[in-house]
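hey all, quick one before standup. I had two proteins in the batch that finished overnight and I want to keep them in one place so we stop losing track of which output belongs to which input. First protein below, input sequence then structure tokens straight from the run.
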Amino acid sequence: MTLLSTLNTDMKTAMRAKDKERLAVIRMLKASLQNEEIKVGHELNADEELTILSREMKQRRDSLAEFEKAGREDLSEKVKIEIAIVENYLPAQLTDEEIRQIVAQAITDTGATSAKEFGKVMGAVMPKVKGKADGNQVNAIVKELLQ
């Protein structure tokens, strides 16, 4: 079952339950996927769908940070609900320990020895954790292990 068909099914369920927040987020995700399909000119594969979901999650996390910094509790609560809904469609997230293992392996594979080779390590790690870990979290762990 493709992500679009899953979203359609969940959208119908949210409509029946009159769950406005869930419905709005599902519609936004569906629109993002459909817009990307139009842009690339073909049906999206699972990897492309994951990329879009990750982008949507990143936008919401960035918004949450900004709202909390500005002291807007009303908006940050709304975004937290949206994040919880989007997380349902993403694969299970990796723990810090699992990310550390992947990063340590990438450091060994690339032969990186200093922080100057940060980009090389990130380039090796990100495809492995795509959609399963937040980029900022991976970034912090790579910096820590390269110190």
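OK second protein, same deal, sequence then tokens:
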Amino acid sequence: MTDAAWESLSNQAVAAAGLLYFLALLAHLVEWASLRKVPVAAGAVARDSVDIPGGVAVATGPEDAAVEGRVRRTALFGRLGYLITWMAVVVHLVALVARGMAADPNRVPWGNMYEFTLAGTFVVAALYVVLYRKLRLAWMAPIVLAFVLSVLMVAVIWLYSPVAPLTEALSSYWLVIHVVSAIVATGAFTLGGITSALYLVKARSLAKKGPQQAGYVARLPQPEALDRVSYRLHAFGFPVWTFAVLITGPIWAHQAWSSYWNWDPKEVWAFITWVVYAAYLHARTTAGWKGRNAAILALVGMATLWFNFIGINYFSSTSQHSYAGGAAQIEVVPQR
């Protein structure tokens, strides 16, 4: 295949992945709309609890049997949405690989903001489908899919740029290690931030309405479970971010600029993000700081993370990690 054919395949795969994410979102929205007709039984867990968010009462009479039948029919939409999401993730991966193959010479697919956004949204979706059953993340489906779909639309509409070769300073295997670890950590922190935001919503709803909740919030796990899932996601992402920011990043910077640390705005904000998440995990493990305060701190961390990802590229004129508004390659200016 020619480079132009690979680039065309990548663009088509991005469009196909977006369509599949949209269909998966529709399936989950139908699922959640149908669940509004099913009563929530506190403390009861359905046999299909992985596929059905929230608990439903076990059938003991004709009315309960009808409810259970409705739940099982609704579960089909949940399984369908999860299957389509898996398909979207596979097509998304094809888009990334084709993007790298379109360059001459072939390279890693993160030479600009468009490509980095493709990679970041892929990791968020991939982590979600991989952890779906382990952490029982059925309740997260609409939020994750809406987030991935929205960011992909932004990337295609405003950030797209043609394939181009990397500059010499970026042609380093340390860049590959650095960016892969940063993207993985970003995906984990994003899922953890979403969970923390839902924790605050659930806790506020319980404080106002007690057990008389309805709709999406009623199907969310209890705040304690959300808090636990958020902690596990952040505990996974933090050492990966540490590896990216404090180990591989400085090594690559030394290769590119002959200095391990240049006080570049992106480096500074990456370190600020590390400090916030370090404070989050330290407070939880030493001071038992859980619940609302921990959730707020996690959201502060996610805000610094995404400002570092987007804000620095658009608002800083001195950063050596410049994506030029997403339309060009990273500009690396060696310093001697």
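Flagging for whoever picks this up: Residues 166-336 form one domain. DSSP finds nine helices and no strands in the chain.
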